[in-house]
Amino acid sequence: MNAQKRMEELIDILNKANYEYYVLANPTIEDMEYDKYLRELIDLENKYPTLARKDSPTKKIGGEVVDKFNKVKHNIPMMSLSNVFNEEEILNFDTKIRKEVNNPKYVCELKIDGLSVSLKYQKGLLITAATRGDGKIGEEITHNVKTIKSVPLKLKKEIDIEVRGEIYMSKKALEDLNKTRKEINEPLFKNARNAAAGSIRQLDSKIAAQRNLDVFIYHLPNPEDYNIKTHIEALEFMKNLGFKTNIDNNFLANDIKEVINYINEKENNRITLPYDIDGVVIKLNNIKDQQKVGYTSKYPKWATAYKFKEQEAITKLKDIIFTVGRTGQVTPNAILEPVFVMGSLISKTTLHNEEYVKEKEIKIGDTVVIKKAGDVIPEVVRVIKERRVGTEQDFHMTKNCPICGSKLAKKEEESAYYCINASCDARKIEGLIHYASRDAMNLTGFGDRIVEDFYNMGYLKNISDYYSLKNYKDELKVLEGFGEKSISNLLNEVENSKQKSLEKLLFALGIRYVGSKTAHILAKFYHNIDNLMNAHYEELEKIDDIGKTISKSVYNYFQNEENIALINKLKSFGINMEYLGELEIDNNFLNKTFVLTGSLNSITRDKATQIIEKKGGKTSNSVSKNTDIVIVGENAGSKLAKAQELNIQTWTEEEFLSHIGSSNEE
Asked: CA 398 to CA 413: how far, in whole Å?
């Protein structure tokens, strides 16, 4: 038998064994036999490397090392879910659904406490795995996801598909991992979610391969492309392709009462599961009903997540300290005797402001009840006053900045105190950290500690200094904990940030009251920073969702000479000051809604979507009366029929390519 034929046999045997063991939980060969086949395949691939296949099970051993995590754009946004916390809110969700849908049926799914992942396949082979990120742009983690044994590298059909799911670590895997870490004196992971997140963000895939991660696939973003009519059908479809789903633990409810009964059952029994869950996801089953109910800008209106009741713990409040944020706000924080709540070790939490502490009558030395719900910051719920012994100390709000000593100021309409010293070290450091954060300029690698170290060493004093760091490359790479490669990665992140769209920069500047959504509204309205800088606050106030408070804050920011000097300095470094959402406007695409259906041969669906958006159009997952053009590839399904029924214009792939001209060139 020749080598290639034997390698193909071994791959089929091992892939089948992986599927049976990790997806079906029904192994048909012994571990010793599996190891023998795997060893034989490794030897053959080492001997004949040109014959190694992309879907080889040897990829699950790990070994691929990447320099950084590349950005990946999600053509269909990875939206988060709205949350409900009690029975009344569940019933309200059902009431809203019933205004649009008669007799809705819901699918109830266990909400796995892990991290979201998108998997893309071409002709049945895994090509990309990415994190959720901000919902629009995530990070590529393909090299690590390939090591997860329940993720198929090759599907049972040669199909182009994207699926989404949750990467998690089982309770047993966490226990084994922490046992190993304890033996080698490494810090223990406090919970499975943190362990999974830390594992999947390793540059060396061998580390991820050793962590025994798992995945459940729960969502098909474009079910109509496969003539699928319900969510349950989508789950069965994905399962039949070779994906691991949690369909056996799902429940199809005929009404909201059955949903509530399911939630109560799972909340009471969750401790018996082999993995952590923090709630139940409720989804409309019928795909057409989902489309009818629609979406908000952040989440689907046809689904929601019930979050299990928060857990409480009792501990001692040992001290109250004060911290300074990037806007100068000084916040009291409780220092607690460490206590575990929902798998997290809590030793500190915010007390928000002076009024919060006084309202709850909190004293230093009190025994307090804290609670935590999911990823929500822990909160001091109440004081157990009957446990007071008389040595407790009253709380007094500091009158001076804990860092620079400047006298604090308090605005009449607010309960917070502020350090108004623009030169305060704490304010500057927090501003630098904010600039590098994910929703701002997303300078991966610039964590809080690195930013603070660089500030204290004099390399980072204001945000424009990020772009001068390259002048200190030789000095930086000899610092303890750094090297040439790590510094080069940091400098590459800084260089890449110069091409960010204007809304990212506006949010990064830290203008008071300007969050990421407001920054996008302003960037889209004014197109470039000069137009915004010249806008009067009365003009700003007339923009939708921009009120009096925000407009005055933005106007005042750009009246400040130091801020103007900062903008000019950033310009001198080549930082983009334009809104990039409407480049290369083409009247064939401007303000038109496109739907892609079928397989495209000469261009990927991702690339086609990017070009459409760049030319001023937008894409949708479903055909409706609001659709302008349907681009039809091979094996088009129900979307083409719907377009013909509604008399909507269609383009072939060739017609689409002729309209975009050279846009498809790399």
From this structure: 19
Average pLDDT over residues 543-548: 83
Burial of 37 (0-12, 13-18, 19+ CB in 10 A): middle
Helix (H) or strand (E) holding 256: helix 256-269
The DSSP-derived string for 87-98 is HHHHHHHHHHHH
Q: Which amino acid is at 28?
A: T
Amino acid (one-letter) located at 662:
S
**In sequence order, what DSSP letters do the residues of 322-375 get, joined into one string?**
EEE-TT-EEEEEEEEEEEEETTEEEEEEE--SHHHHHHTT--BT-EEEEEE-TT
Packing angle between helix 256-269 and helix 87-98, nearest 10 degrees?
150
Query: What confidence category does residue 512 fall into, taking pLDDT thresholds of 50, 70 and 90?
Result: confident
Q: How far apart are the first and last CA of the chain?
A: 43
User: To which residue do tokens 């719907």 refer?
Assistant: 642
3-class SS of residue 31: helix
Coil, helix or strand at residue 200: helix
Q: How confident is the model at residue 376 (pLDDT cuts 50, 70, 90)?
A: low
pLDDT tens digits, residue range 182-221? Answer: 777 777 787 788 889 888 988 888 889 999 999 999 999 9
175: left (phi over 0), alpha (psi -120 to 50) or beta: alpha
**Token pair recorded at residue 570:** 């950033």
CA dist., res. 67 & res. 61, Å (int): 19
| Token representation of residue 388 | 């007071």
Query: Measuring CA to CA, how many Å separate 114 from each of 167, 269, 277, 444, 596?
Result: 5, 19, 9, 21, 31
DSSP annotation of 578: B
Residue 346: the pLDDT is 85
Is residue 340 classed exposed, middle or buried when 0-12, 13-18 and 19+ CB atoms within 10 A define those classes? middle
Q: What's the pLDDT band for 666 if we cut at 50, 70, 90?
A: very low
Distance of alpha carbon 599 from alpha carbon 151, whole angstroms: 23
DSSP 140: B
Separation of alpha carbons 239 and 232, rounded Å: 11
> 275: Cβ–Cβ under 8 A, 6 or more apart, which residues?
112, 113, 168, 169, 170, 171, 192, 214
Judging by beta carbons within 10 Å of its beta carbon (0-12, 13-18, 19+), is residue 186 exposed, middle or buried?
exposed
DSSP result, 207-218? HHHTTT-EEEEE
Tokens of 637: 């399904």
| CA atoms lying within 13 Å on the CB side of residue 120 | 17
Active site residue 111: yes
State both tokens at 323. 């911290």
| Residue pair 27/149 in contact by the 8 Å Cβ criterion | no
DSSP 86: S
CA 22 vs CA 56, 244, 270, 501, 614: distances in Å: 16, 8, 21, 43, 42
Rounded Cα distance, 568 and 553, in Å: 20
CB 323 within 8 A of CB 402: yes
Active-site residue, from 59, 60, 105, 111 = 111
**7-21, 408-422, 508-522, 602-616: least confidently modelled range:** 602-616
Return the residue matching tokens 């109509």: 224
Write b or e for each residue in 479-495: b if 16 or more Cβ atoms lie within 10 A of its Cβ, otherwise e: eeeeeeebbbebbbbbe
Report whether 636 contacts 597 (CB < 8 A).
yes
Give the residue, 311 or 593, on which the prediction is more confident.
593
Q: What share of the chain is helix, strand, coil (3-state, %, to 5)?
A: 40, 20, 40
| DSSP SS3 for 64 | coil
Answer yes or no: are the C-beta atoms of 432 and 451 closer than 8 Å: yes
